[in-house]
Every structure is written in C-alpha cells, then in structure tokens.
Amino acid sequence: MSSTSQKHRDFVAEPMGEKPVMALAGIGEVLGKRLEEKGFDKAYVVLGQFLVLKKDEELFRDWLKDTCGANVKQQGDCYGCLKEWCDAFL
C-alpha cells in the first residue's frame, strides 16, 4: 500500500468517538462542508454509510463521488482510512 498521510495515521490510531467528518483522510474543508450539508457531520456517520455498503470499495467510492464530489484520490484516501480503522477496531 502507498504511504499514508499524517491525517490518516492520526485517525486510525485511536477510537473514532465524536471526530468531525473532516478528520477523515481525503476529506478537507470543501468536501466536509458538502457532507455536513447532507447530514454526514461526524466521521461515525460516514462510517455508517461505509458499513451499509458492506465495506465495498467501488460502492463507497461511487457514493462519496456522488454525495460530495470527491475525486479519485480523495475517494481512495477516505476508503483506505475507514478500512484500516475497521480492521483495527471492529
């Protein structure tokens, strides 16, 4: 796997708790605001969608693109972040 960002490493290092959606790797201020406007204001709400999609990479990437306009890199960063968090904590 390619190297991960500090944001990614920080996110997967501990339980999610009440972290904001922008704590997810690949989700910055612009995408975060778009997600918040659609009700995805916390990282755990996006995690819920990730789990509803059965952790399927293609489905999650498509959902993220359709929901907030995430590009391919942002989709991959967010997917990788949630997948690694799930592998560690679920």
Automatic annotation (TrEMBL):
Keyword Transport among UniProt keywords: no
InterPro entries: BAF, BAF_prot, BAF_sf
Any Pfam family hit: SAM_BAF
Gene Ontology terms: cellular component: condensed chromosome; cytoplasm; nuclear envelope
Annotated GO biological process: chromosome organization
The keyword Nucleus belongs to this UniProt entry's keyword annotation: yes
Alphabetical keyword list: Chromosome, Cytoplasm, DNA-binding, Nucleus
Gene3D superfamilies assigned: Barrier-to-autointegration factor, BAF
Domain of life: Eukaryota
Gene Ontology MF annotations: DNA binding
Localization in the cell: Chromosome; Cytoplasm; Nucleus envelope
Family in the record: Belongs to the BAF family.
Family matches, as PANTHER family: BARRIER TO AUTOINTEGRATION FACTOR 2, BARRIER-TO-AUTOINTEGRATION FACTOR
Name of this chain's protein: Barrier-to-autointegration factor
Organism of derivation: Perca fluviatilis
